[in-house]
Amino acid sequence: MLNGETIQFMRFQKGWGQVELAKRAGISQTLISLMENGSQEISHESKRRILEAFGLDEMDVLKIWNYVNSMKQLNL
């Protein structure tokens, strides 16, 4: 599941800012920000571009999402 927290986590892991991800995904930095803070739903096209920018597939994202959520439950 790709959501704002997962996008932000993946960016931090790569050492990318929003501008870097936006360039690599071919979408605006404003849209990245809106998706990360939950103000904008992530469209199928944006999701595809973001996954491509990170070089990930749906299964990778599911694993990352599970990790992020488990860390939240542990308050880490």
TrEMBL record:
Classification via InterPro entries: Cro/C1-type_HTH, Lambda_DNA-bd_dom_sf
Origin: domain of life: Bacteria
Molecular function per GO: DNA binding
Matching Pfam families: HTH_19 (PF12844)
Domain (HTH cro/C1-type): residue spans on this chain: 7-62
Xref: PROSITE patterns: HTH_CROC1 (PS50943)
CDD domains from the UniProt entry: HTH_XRE (cd00093)
Protein name: Helix-turn-helix transcriptional regulator
Organism: Lentibacillus cibarius
Organism ancestry: Bacteria, Bacillati, Bacillota, Bacilli, Bacillales
